[in-house]
Amino acid sequence: MGAFASALVYTLEDVPGKGKGLIAASDIPMGTRIISEKPFVTVPTQVRTMEQQWIRVYQQVLALSVHQKREFLAMDNVYPYTNPTEEYHGIFRTNALPIGSDLGGGGVFLHACRINHACDPNATNFWNENLDKLTIHAIRDIQKGEEITISYLEATRNKKARAKDLKQLFKFVCLCQLCSLPRQQSKESDKRLDRVHQLDNLIEEAGLEGLVWSAQRLLGYVDEQVQLWNEETSKLIGLTRAYPDAVQIAIANGDLARGLVFAERALALYRGALGDDSPDVAEYKKLVRDPATHEYYGMSMQWKTAPEEIPMLLEVTEAAKFEDWLWRRGGRTVR
Ligand SMILES: C[S@@+](CC[C@H](N)C(=O)[O-])C[C@H]1O[C@@H](n2cnc3c(N)ncnc32)[C@H](O)[C@@H]1O
Prior knowledge:
binds S-adenosylmethionine; 335 residues; alpha+beta; 11 helices; 2 domains; 3-stranded antiparallel β-sheet; SET_dom_sf; SET_domain_protein; SET_dom; Beta-clip-like; Serine Threonine Protein Phosphatase 5, Tetratricopeptide repeat; globular
């Protein structure tokens, strides 16, 4: 198990076709924090040019202890090199995970950087500004002996687009479950992911003004995204993006009842994927206490409701009708 301590829930092992990887040493329930770790080589957001990156990485590697340097040099490097500066930078590019408040920086981590990629991962990486550490959380139940995986890609696009990015950036062909689906299922998944992407673009294009002027349409888009994500194994990552959009749309239009329900769902997702000590969880806890504290509250009052107007009984007795109310379906005039 190499350099890793014994109390860990994973071991570092050879994984056929992938080099090394992390394997669960026991069952890991969804929501478990698997890793919480500080980087040992970093490049902050401000360092923009390749030359600046080379120097920054080179200087840090020289300053590492003998043990750390050995660990760093044992990491994967998919880029060709002719001298140590290029070699260190190649290791950095192959392994760095996003860090910093805007996720524009990169950090190399002793443990987390040994995690291989899957397009439908069972874990997720997150830079926790409160801890100044990277965390890895299980986003599904992981069985003992199963490989722990994260996604190296910013978004889950269709199979062809994923393959192109992975080949270009990491030089491998992905054989994860999503990429190995039978032809028909793969086509269906691609169709869903293409539509999610198209809806993302439409939501982005609508901008801040759209939150009010196209509120009904935008909420419909997010509703559709949630339904599409629910068909995918990697749904949790997609849902953590969709629900915050729903929170914004509802609250920007004065709908505190729906805003509260959406915020509760976003909070539950963030708790599992990021942990209770993350800034996002703190933000959503505040919104759940008082949705009117959202910065967009008051942009419009066209859907004005109070938190007390949530039809609690409906939620318990008729879940489908509750969803119709929540997403303002069926003429989309229901208050
Ligand atoms: C950050 S490293 C992951 C740990 C690495 N396997 C090791 O031995 O240190 C990224 C590299 O691992 C390999 N890799 C990661 N995920 C893979 C996958 N799903 N299939 C094949 N190779 C993979 C690729 O070579 C990639 O460039």
